[in-house]
Specification:
Chain B: It comes from Lymnaea stagnalis. Chain B: It is found in: Nucleus. The complex is a heterodimer of chains A (about 270) and B (about 140). With about 270 residues, chain A is mainly alpha-helical. Chain A contains nine helices and four strands. Chain A is elongated. In chain B, helix 4 packs across helix 5. Chain B is elongated. The chains are: A mainly alpha (about 270), B mainly alpha (about 140). Chains A and B meet through helix 1, strand 2, helix 2, helix 3 and helix 4 of A and helix 2, helix 3, helix 4, helix 5 and strand 1 of B.
């Protein structure tokens, strides 16, 4: 049988007051009540608090009057009698039939404070500070270090950037040529892995360096067009296919927009 | 603890004289209260009152009372319990009287016994406690 309160129970904050509320409710149930007004119950709680405090205050007063600091049972009895309690009824009250005892509220486990994160090593005291004084806090909390951004045009950075750019360009060009032209494969099994630019064997590799370039040929051609065209053609046909192609192309152009540009005549001698 | 139990009878006898001086009622009960009371304090070693020890100890500590002996705490708990029980009994009698006066009208069926302020106030007045609370305060 639980004691209900007629109004909504105001949840009090302190756990002691809540436990006291339960105890007084149990006492009321023993007396024969099934229900209690919240107002009456709270009044009884307040009175019990005042009663216990007054008993404690008076008994400690009696103990101090007797020249003691520790309270003895006799002091308590004296104080309670002083407060108007009939002590003869206490043992019968204690041994009553329908005594209710509920479990006393357990002690809440103390919360362990979380450990402080240790950052870095703490500095030792300088010589002029005694050892018993508190140690320095973590260094990051008070040590100031200058902070600056590296300039963008620093020599090393620029060189590194240029080198990486150059390497990227080379790699890209190599890849492009390998994709468009003929390739050798480094591994026979996998054709696509590590393609290498096919090497065309040339009987006279130094010849291309010795021969005049296209622009020189065209200027030579335009300047010497009247005098020795046959000779020029013979030379071209005999040695380099590419230059002959250019020469024949310049003759076969019929598109008016693609007429080779005229270059001012140059004196060679 | 042992020293305490040894010392308790001594002031108990002094206490008896003081009590008998103060209360005339105690004189008749003197043979029944004297020694049995100290025995009763010893019995409190294994007694669990309805008001928990920790709660009583908390309020005693707030009053500046160092309760190292659990028997003392339990004695005060018992006294407070007795106080509340007496008041509750008186209030119950009041409500029964009130109910008997009105029983002819509408209290035919047995209702739940509810502790109300209108019963508690006269019961407390018998103990010299005047409670005046606004009825709307809940």
């Amino acid at each position: 049988m639980a004691l209900e309160s007629t109004t909504s129970t105001g949840q009090s904050s302190t756990p002691w007051r809540r436990a006291l509320r339960t105890s007084i409710a149990a006492l009321l149930v023993e007396a024969g009540y099934q229900c209690a007004e919240n107002l009456a119950l709270e009044t009884l709680i307040e009175m019990t608090q005042a009663y216990i405090s007054e008993a404690g205050r008076t008994s400690s007063g009696y103990a101090e009057l007797a020249g003691r600091t520790h309270v003895m049972p006799s002091d308590v009895v004296l104080a309670l009698v002083e407060m108007g309690l009939d002590f003869t009824a206490i043992p019968t009250h204690a041994k009553r039939e329908n005594k209710t005892v509920f479990l006393p509220p357990a002690q809440a486990p103390a919360t362990v404070p979380s450990k402080i994160l240790q950052v870095g090593e703490k500095r030792k005291h300088p010589a002029h500070i005694p050892e018993h004084l508190p140690s320095f806090p973590d260094p990051h909390t008070y040590i100031k270090t200058p902070c600056f951004k590296q300039p963008a045009n620093e020599y090393q950075l620029v060189r590194e950037k240029a080198a990486s750019q150059k390497r990227d360009v080379e790699v890209a060009l190599t890849r492009f040529i390998a994709k468009t032209g003929a390739t050798h494969s480094l591994f026979r099994d996998d054709k696509s892995a590590f393609p290498l630019i096919a090497c065309k064997p040339c009987p006279l590799p130094y010849m291309s360096a010795l021969l005049p370039m296209d622009s020189e040929i065209s200027t030579q051609e335009s300047s010497d067009a009247d005098s020795t065209p046959q000779l020029h053609h013979q030379v071209n046909d005999g040695h380099l296919g590419l230059s002959t192609d250019v020469a024949t192309d310049s003759e076969t152009i019929d598109n008016p927009y693609l007429i080779p540009a005229k270059i001012a005549k140059k004196k060679w001698r | 603890m042992a020293s305490n139990t040894d010392e308790t009878p001594k002031p108990q006898f002094i206490l008896q004289s003081q009590i008998s001086q103060e209360n005339q009622q105690q004189i008749q009960d003197k043979p029944s209260t004297g020694v049995p009371l100290s025995d009763f304090v010893l019995q409190l070693e294994d007694y669990a009152p309805t008001i928990p020890d920790s709660v009583t100890g908390y309020y005693l500590n707030r009053a500046g009372f160092d309760s190292s002996d659990p028997r003392i705490t339990r004695l005060i708990s018992l006294a407070a319990q007795k106080f509340i029980s007496d008041i509750a009994n008186d209030a119950l009698q009041h409500s029964k009287m009130r109910a008997s006066g009105q029983s002819a009208k509408k209290q035919g069926k047995d209702k739940k016994m509810t502790l109300q302020m209108e019963d508690l106030t006269p019961a407390l007045a018998e103990y010299g406690i005047n409670v005046k609370k606004p009825m709307y305060f809940v």
